[in-house]
Design brief:
By secondary structure, the chain is mainly α. The chain has one domain. It is 74% helix and 0% strand. The longest helix has 24 residues.
Length: 156
C-alpha cells in the first residue's frame, strides 16, 4: 500500500512539473488579464484569462516584428500568432458556449489584425506619390492581397 501511495505521489509531482513546464511564459504586460482569481470555483474565469492571454500575447509578439511586404514577414507573423491561435482553438473546442464564441471572435480578430499589419507594411502614398512610384505602390498591394486572403477568410 505504501508503495502505491509513493508511486501516486511521485506521478503527481512529475505530472505537476510537466504541466508547469508546458505553461507559456506570461509577459509582464499581460499578467493582469491572464490572472485567474484564486477563489474561482467555475471554469469561466480560467477560460476568460486564457482568451485574454492569447490575444494580449499575440499583439505583443506582432508588435515586436518589423514587417515588410514579403513572404518572410508573413511567415514571421504566422509564427508569432500561432501559440495564441492554438490556445484559442483549445477554448473553442472546450464546448463552453460563451467562451467558445468569445474565442472564435478573438481568433477572427487576430487574423484580421495580421492582414492589416501586412497591408501597413507597404509604405503609404503621399500627395507627391505619382507616376511609377504610385504604380509600384498599387502593384505591391495587388501582389499582397492574394497572400493575405486566407487570413481574411478566417476573419469572417
Amino acid at each position: 500500500m505504501r508503495t502505491l501511495i509513493r508511486l501516486v505521489s511521485v506521478c503527481t509531482v512529475l505530472a505537476g512539473s510537466t504541466v508547469a513546464l508546458a505553461q507559456p511564459a506570461v509577459p509582464d504586460q499581460c499578467k493582469d488579464v491572464a490572472t485567474v482569481p484564486p477563489d474561482a470555483k467555475i471554469p469561466g474565469p480560467g477560460l476568460a484569462a486564457k482568451v485574454s492571454l492569447a490575444t494580449c500575447g499575440a499583439e505583443l509578439r506582432m508588435a515586436a516584428l518589423k514587417l515588410t511586404p514579403d513572404d518572410a514577414s508573413m511567415q514571421a507573423l504566422t509564427a508569432a500568432v500561432q501559440p495564441s491561435i492554438d490556445a484559442l482553438n483549445e477554448v473553442i473546442k472546450g464546448g463552453d458556449g460563451t467562451y467558445s464564441t468569445l474565442a472564435t471572435k478573438a481568433r477572427a480578430d487576430l487574423f484580421a489584425s495580421m492582414a492589416v499589419r501586412m497591408r501597413n507594411s507597404i509604405p503609404p502614398i503621399t500627395m507627391d506619390t505619382v507616376g511609377q512610384a504610385l504604380a509600384d505602390h498599387d502593384k505591391a498591394h495587388a501582389d499582397l492581397e492574394p497572400k493575405i486572403k486566407p487570413w481574411l477568410d478566417q476573419a469572417h
